[in-house]
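hey
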């Protein structure tokens, strides 16, 4: 614990604590029953604070979060979310974990080396994103997925996010922030049917703040690493 105190900055700890507190309060007000949702939310927000530090342990927590979130999504027939997180985000988090461990900064396993993508790779990513989006649209339509358009947009933003995470680009946090906005909309719509899903929407609002912070943190990390080369 003493080591963690000095590993995380005061801003890191304040953001994590406030995010966790908001998640717990919303759970107590709107849910009080689905402890899996609470556990997933707390694991997810904790993974983001590690990801903001470029620590591979964040990807370990993301694997666990993806599994739990997939189950939660299934409960409201958000098959797009279920398929996305179990079939794409979770395995890609495993690949990202390997990538981050294989590319430590200056030999430090607790910090990944920030990468810069070429223009050609961005073009490739866009092409792959279009293919994945069209494929999932028809799959989700076949399964009568609730709120089809935002569910498809979630697939789009999730794919970009996991691709950039795997490639160690700071912009992965921007893509996740966009995904958070889509998910806030999705779970707000779900809360019209059951108030317990308000706590999930609040969870992704907390994620949004953490992903914005993560992008800022990675930009600073990129500058710091480039200055020491």
């Amino acid at each position: 614990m003493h080591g963690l105190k000095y590993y995380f900055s005061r801003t890191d700890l304040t953001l994590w604590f406030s995010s966790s507190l908001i998640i717990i309060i919303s759970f107590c007000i709107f849910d009080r029953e689905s402890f899996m949702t609470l556990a997933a939310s707390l694991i997810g927000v904790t993974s983001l604070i590690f990801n903001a530090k470029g620590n591979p342990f964040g990807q370990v927590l993301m694997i666990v979060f993806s599994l739990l979130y997939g189950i939660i999504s299934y409960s409201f027939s958000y098959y797009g979310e279920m398929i996305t997180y179990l079939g794409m985000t979770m395995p890609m988090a495993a690949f990202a974990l390997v990538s981050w461990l294989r590319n430590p900064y200056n030999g430090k396993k607790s910090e990944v080396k920030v990468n810069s993508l070429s223009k050609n790779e961005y073009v490739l990513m866009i092409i792959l994103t279009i293919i994945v989006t069209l494929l999932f649209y028809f799959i989700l339509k076949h399964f009568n997925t609730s709120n089809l358009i935002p569910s498809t947009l979630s697939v789009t933003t999730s794919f970009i996010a996991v691709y950039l995470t795997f490639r160690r680009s700071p912009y992965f946090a921007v893509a996740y922030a966009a995904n958070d906005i889509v998910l806030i909309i999705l779970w707000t719509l779900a809360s019209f049917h059951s108030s317990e899903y308000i706590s999930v929407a609040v969870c992704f609002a907390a994620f949004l703040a953490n992903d914005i912070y993560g992008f800022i943190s990675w930009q600073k990390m990129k500058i710091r690493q480039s200055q020491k080369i």
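DSSP finds nine helices and two strands in the chain. The two ends are 31 Å apart (CA to CA).
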